[in-house]
Design a protein that fits this description.
The structure holds 2 protein chains of 2 kinds. Chain A is α/β, with parallel strands linked by helices. Chain A is 36% helix and 21% strand. Chain A is globular and about 50 Å long. In chain B, 19% of the residues are buried. Classes of the chains: A alpha/beta, B mainly beta. The structure holds flavin mononucleotide (FMN) and zinc ion. The site of flavin mononucleotide has 15 residues of chain A, from β5. Chain A: GO terms for molecular function: FMN binding; oxidoreductase activity. Chain A: This is NAD(P)H-dependent oxidoreductase.
């Protein structure tokens, strides 16, 4: 019972650092939808603010703030634009990912809503130990979805985001219960 | 399988081992050991404070 009532933490990861990134607007929509849910805390993790060191390896280059956020997280929303038919984003190997839920939001200038990027990201998520859900959100032709001030022009995205989040929250809650209480045989 | 339990380094509670993930060897010593069996990283979560800890071992 306790387990079900306890708040979840599901941050939104903005997976591109590009100047002028449209994905930032998509991440803001996702953040708004997570905040609209009861019992879930969230924050934006902007990869621009996660230092990526190249002067060492392994544990010693872990950013303490980022790994702290991942340790707290019960699930992740990853907003990943499609670049060259593949995904963008940071996927450091952290043990904190294991048996946590992940949902992917694809963003593209083209008509497929980043789905080629999502498909290429799925096996990476699996290798990290994250559990993929079967809902995606696809921001296709993203320049038509927002006005120049970043206002969402199509309400249907909010509805799709809410469906996606319902599944992600279920998976996050279920996995948290398992991580805490169900031992591996 | 009988597994050695782990105590939470933060609060001392008994941790729950919820995953065993196959990993690749990072040293000649690990590679030699892995040749005798699977090299895994065990993931443990503290049900009291939520801390995650892991250890690499031969399964
Ligand atoms: C290096 C690069 C490669 C890209 N490749 C694709 C692509 O393969 N398919 C596509 O639909 N859009 C592609 N785009 C356009 C992005 O989808 C577009 O920038 C969109 O607004 C989402 O990304 P953003 O957050 O960087 O704006 C590419 C953009 C860049 C910078
Ligand atoms: Zn503890």
């Amino acid at each position: 019972m306790m387990d079900e009532e306890e708040r979840l933490f599901i941050p939104v990861v903005l997976g591109t650092t590009r100047q002028g990134r449209m994905s930032e607007h998509c991440a803001q929509v996702m953040l708004e939808r997570v905040r609209a849910r009861q019992g879930v805390d969230t924050e934006l993790i902007d990869l621009r603010r996660v230092p990526m060191r190249t002067d060492d390896a392994g544990e010693s280059i872990k950013d303490p703030e980022f790994s702290g956020q991942m340790s707290r997280a019960d699930g992740l929303v990853i907003v990943s634009p499609e670049y060259n038919h593949a995904y963008a984003g940071l996927h450091t190997c952290l043990k904190e990912y294991i048996h946590k839920a992940v949902g992917i939001v694809g963003v593209s200038a083209g008509p497929w809503g980043g789905s080629r990027g999502i498909e290429s990201l799925l096996p990476v998520m699996r290798e990290l130990g994250l559990v993929n859900i079967f809902w995606d959100v696809n921001f296709a032709s993203v320049h038509k979805v927002f006005d120049e001030r970043g206002t969402l022009l199509d309400e249907a995205y909010r509805k799709r985001a809410d469906k996606f989040l319902a599944e992600l929250v279920w998976m996050a809650r279920t996995l948290r219960h398992g991580r805490r209480l169900i031992p591996l045989e | 399988m009988k597994r050695d339990s782990m105590k939470c380094p933060k609060c001392g509670a008994e941790m729950n081992c919820h995953a065993e993930k196959p990993v690749d060897p990072l040293s000649a010593k690990e590679a030699a050991a892995a040749a005798q069996g699977a090299l895994v990283e065990e993931i443990h979560l503290c049900p009291r404070c939520g801390f995650t800890e892991s250890r690499r071992l031969i399964a």
